[in-house]
Amino acid sequence: MANISFYSNNFGGTAVDLIDHDAGSGIGFFGDSIGLSVPITTYQNSTYTTNANGTSTDGMKLSNTKYASTSGAYHNNSSVETDLRAIPNYWAPLNVRFTHDEPVATQNVQMRIFNRSDIDVHATDVVTQVYEVRHPNPDDGQDPAGAR
Question: How many domains would you assign to the chain?
């Protein structure tokens, strides 16, 4: 049987928690802390798990990877730009896992940023920068302390 699970990488890099997306939880991107809006023409400074409305004030702080350029990102508000190809798995705020009981191949996989009502309608007035951090070997790009 096929299964897709969503996990969050916490801010300290020591835990991976299942996001209960069936209950409407997810991740939220904020300004300097949870609940604070991202100022216009900027990118988020913090990422947290949230409730279905994105309003939870007790969400877990996640690893935050912020757009810096077409080839780099900032991690947890560092001012040092890291090359996208060098970002380790545990820096990504979201870890999506597809599993199946039998060996299968996937094709035409899509990620959609939508308006929360219609998967075919892009989120209004939202600029989204997405990068797939992919180190297929579980030992590649991992926390040097072995947290994952």
Answer: 1
Q: What is the DSSP string of 57-72?
A: SSPPEE--EEEEETTE
Virtual CA dihedral for 32, 33, 39, 42, nearest 10 degrees? 60
Q: Is residue 111 part of a domain?
A: no
Q: Is residue 119 part of a domain?
A: no
Whose tokens are 């299964």? That residue is 3
Flag whether 86 is in a domain: yes
Give the pLDDT confidence of 35-50 residue by residue, as tens digits: 898 988 899 999 998 8
> Mind listing the pLDDT tens digit for each residue in 58-102?
788 899 999 999 999 999 989 999 999 998 888 889 888 888 999
CB 7, CB 25: distance < 8 Å: no
Domain carrying residue 54: 3-99
Most distant CA atoms of the chain, gap in Å: 46
Report helix, strand or coil for 85: helix
Contact 62, 45 (CB under 8 A): no
